[in-house]
Specification:
Elements (H helix, E strand, L loop, with lengths): L7 E4 L10 H7 L5 E4 L14 H15 L4 E6 L1 H12 L4 E7 L11 H9 L5 H15 L2 H10 L6 H8 L15 E6 L9 H6 L4 E6 L6 H4 L1 H18 L8
Parallel strand pairs: 1-2, 1-3, 3-4, 4-5, 5-6
Helix pairs in contact: 1-10, 2-3, 4-7, 5-6
């Protein structure tokens, strides 16, 4: 791990945990100080109550623990919206953002199906949801890509609260509160969560869009190397723009 690399904090998506990032941790460690967190209600924080404020506090603690100043925060799906909130609340700790699968406005009539899902999840036994998720991940992806996620389990009990707070809260205007550069990173085939990517990018003077070819919503599972490379290139650009980023100012 180099002392002068831009620190990176990885923030998982809905129902997952830090295990989602096992491939990225392996790929990025050595060049950057890097860590993956569990959001409240997920993984090792499963017993903690969910709130966006608490989630941003967890990210801030992770940035401080890396000890290299403001960080590049990489958030997938739910984690992407959390990073938007983090950048608004903690701009002094934000060196840059990667919004992965999180450029879909969570306001308006289009989110009605997600509210329905959030209400449905508590009615389905958690063990049934776990078996379904395990089978799905093992069928779609190599074992080495998803095994850490499967071992860590799923936070179905937190989904209603997490989605309940995110739905109705974020859209392209949320980008205007972000001071740091932003990479909007989407799977080419993720037609839902990239549907507002142009609006999100236009709302921020230092935002750009990059697509991972043939990838879907779980793009870091679909093509772990391409995802890691996109984060790596963006982090290197941040360092080149401001080589003194490790000062913590």
């Amino acid at each position: 791990m180099t002392a002068d690399g831009v620190p990176i904090v990885l923030v998982h998506g809905t129902r997952f945990s830090a295990g989602q990032w096992s491939m990225q941790l392996a790929a990025l460690d050595g060049e950057f100080p890097v860590t993956a967190i569990d959001l409240p209600g997920h993984g090792e924080r499963s017993a903690e109550p969910w709130s966006l404020r608490a989630a941003t506090d967890v990210i801030a603690d992770a940035v401080d623990a890396l000890g290299h100043g403001p960080a590049l925060v990489v958030g997938h799906s739910l984690g992407g919206y959390v990073t938007l909130e983090f950048a608004r609340r903690r701009p002094e700790r934000t060196r840059g953002l990667v919004l992965a699968g999180a450029s879909f406005a969570t306001r308006g009539a289009r989110v009605a199906p997600y509210r329905w899902i959030a209400g449905l999840v508590p009615r389905v036994p958690a063990d049934r949801l776990t078996r379904w998720n395990d089978r799905l991940l093992r069928r779609l992806y190599p074992r080495e890509v998803v095994e850490a996620t499967i071992r860590a389990g799923y936070a179905f009990h937190t989904l209603p609260a997490a989605w309940g707070e995110v739905l109705g809260r974020f859209d392209a205007e949320s980008m205007r509160a972000v001071r740091a550069p932003v990479l909007i990173l989407n799977g080419e085939k993720d037609t839902v969560f990239r549907s507002d990517e142009v609006r999100f990018a236009r709302a921020h003077p230092e935002a750009r869009v990059e697509l991972i070819p043939r990838a879907r919503h779980l793009m870091n599972f679909d093509d772990p190397a391409a995802f890691s490379d996109a984060v790596r290139r963006f982090a290197r650009q941040l360092r080149a723009v401001n080589p003194a980023n490790s000062s913590g100012n």
